[in-house]
């Protein structure tokens, strides 16, 4: 006879059951940035980074990561994305990454947007680390989401 | 006849050829943290987060991500890790993640440690976002590396 | 000219075409167990297994395996799970694993539940094998399914 | 402040947003072939190839590749296939592979059929290369597609 | 300041560090079986199962699963297998699967052999479940291992 | 009692056991091309293809595919690549792809180079198919290999 009780108490990890949720349009925007030395930033801007085209590679890595999200984050549901868009911006001592994901589904795409940003930033680190090992990834956060029962949400200014 | 020249200029993305490098012991330590509301932090500490055991799940996600690094970061070499270790710390308004990776190989394990930290933090975000969508991932960086031609490196204080 | 006939006789492996099936709610429950020495069972119960938290790790492995099912079983359709739940029970000389999977789709989730149980049990083996290499995985079977054209089914007592 | 403009010009790689497309029945057929020496072809026909059953293995590889398409081709959408069918034909100095894929979705399954053919042919190469390293894969193309806004299409004779 | 102590107590899941182990030849043999109705067994033997060639498909699934082991079992090390061999046997009311794996590495291949057996059996279940949903997978166990610090081991009779 | 004999006859698919082979430097070069309309070729050259930067994306897809080879081709050994290099050439009515792979291992890297070429070409097809669905992938072949017991090999002119 099994005694399941104490092994499956409230605290056990589990996927949320989305079976009763409605399939609605959902979008999410996330962003983050990586700070770096002037030297590294200039090399990336000029296309002189040692492993080649940094932002083109980071963009593909970010898009592909969004599609792998449910394989990376244990309790995420597998989702069929309608779109993922990744863009970059140069700041004074940093490069920013913004990702937008959308689909019509029973659960949101926040994690897909967050994963795209994270892997995009890691790829920049990988391709620039020969120039500056001290680059720091920071400020990865959700900017906004729409759709679903919890409704729209925007990060505070 | 092909005219390869301008398509494969210096700037094209490419894996670094590590064929001539020596196989040596290499280690890397990376860390990062995720800031959150007192409410979310307390729930995680108390095991009351809505998807269950946050740090246990994040630890497994981080370890598995380290093993997937070359599938996530386009120009990383596939590596056979000897060890990955992931630990967490509670801060005042944040949880920190530290990952240590090691192996004997021709190239370093910085990206494996960085990937473990990043996916560990994303998993915490995923499991806590019903409590606080405004959590922010920050300060992901390499703490130290040892081994290889470029030698030891420590992040500045 | 191709002569396809004998190469594609009835016996060739193929995915069943589910294009004409209706999308309905489907659930599946599977279970199995792993027998082990009293020594190994006590260590796992007490949290003293050499690789750490056995059931927490096995649970995550089981959930992630359910999501990978169509990548593991050649003729399974890729499915977007609504939920997967994994629970454990202590028996006299064994640990049992039960997995429940559900979704609304054109085909059933039996294999997702069976895969979750199998990988959960393999993970327990991996984490306990330093204590007892003679552990045996047994009695992996479908307990029940609901939905779909073939209707409900329950394993005989 | 970010200056996103020149980094995200028209030319940046991106997934097409299929959010506004209708979910309709879509099918695609692709084919290709691999030419080889009479010696290699005879061995494969007779089941004497050094790694064993060539076409049975290539068929499974092709089916599994169709399911991995969105993980292989960076800008493909993840799709839940209804069916994939793979068949082979013997030609005078070649083996041909044909794959048919179908589903009801917002975007087409051309790439799934093309990927199945390509990986099926690569698997034949792998299993026959000890007999003939000079085998050549050729004429991989879309034969026909149906469904979607762009309608039906057939390859010219 | 982090207070890592109680979060990383002895019980936390972790990969064993194999950095100090010697790279030696290691082999493992595992087996298991799936019991089924006479009807299902006859159909499989005769090549009449509804999804086609059962054992050919299960063999490929088993081999591919061995290569995915470190992606399935959270604390397994990624290993570069030298060989995997999978064989089947017909019993009175069952089909048995045996897998042998080998490599020269710092850690053993027991889990690769166990994973091959498990996924091979699940594939048989998948391909036969339209004939008999009550099939039961049982007796998955390690038969023998050689090599490594813990030396040779054989399952008791 | 099992009767393994007829199920595991010579013809069964199996990985070649490379345990007794020497680890030596091995390289492989493969190439292929995709023919297309003048319209499509011009759009790709000018950076006007509808999904964005075609060759940059195809290059990353090709490199990542090389790393996934053992997950795509059932009987390939998992290998730790030292380098993969992918280049493109414009022909009159086609784009050619060449991939070079190398490592020090017990078995060759031909399939890694062939897989890189195949997935690179499929990616070009995917990104150009809105311009020309009739593009044809052809002439994928091994150009040369070095190392290993079978020695050097070059494709006949």
UniProtKB/TrEMBL annotation, chains A, B, C, D, E, F:
InterPro entries: MoaC (IPR023045), MoaC_bact/euk (IPR047594), MoaC_sf (IPR036522), MoCo_biosynth_MoaA/MoaC (IPR050105), Mopterin_CF_biosynth-C_dom (IPR002820). It holds the Pfam family MoaC. Substrate binds at residues 75-77, 111-112. Pathway: Cofactor biosynthesis; molybdopterin biosynthesis. Its EC number is 4.6.1.17. PANTHER family: CYCLIC PYRANOPTERIN MONOPHOSPHATE SYNTHASE, MOLYBDOPTERIN COFACTOR SYNTHESIS PROTEIN A. This is Cyclic pyranopterin monophosphate synthase. It comes from Pontixanthobacter rizhaonensis. The gene is moaC.
């Amino acid at each position: 006879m099994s005694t399941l009780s104490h092994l499956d108490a409230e605290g056990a990890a589990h996927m949320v059951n989305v079976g009763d949720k409605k399939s609605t349009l959902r979008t999410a925007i996330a962003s983050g940035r990586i700070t770096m030395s002037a030297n590294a930033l200039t090399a990336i801007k000029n296309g002189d980074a040692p492993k080649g085209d940094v932002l083109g590679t980071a963009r593909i890595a970010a898009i592909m990561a969004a599609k792998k999200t449910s394989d990376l984050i244990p309790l995420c549901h597998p989702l069929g994305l309608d779109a993922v868009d990744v863009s970059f911006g140069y700041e004074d001592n940093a490069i920013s990454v913004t990702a937008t994901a959308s689909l019509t589904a029973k659960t949101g795409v926040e994690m897909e947007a967050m994963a795209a940003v994270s892997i995009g930033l890691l790829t920049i680190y990988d391709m620039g680390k020969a120039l500056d090992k001290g680059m720091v990834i920071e400020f990865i956060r959700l900017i906004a989401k729409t759709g679903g029962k919890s409704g729209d949400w925007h990060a505070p200014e």
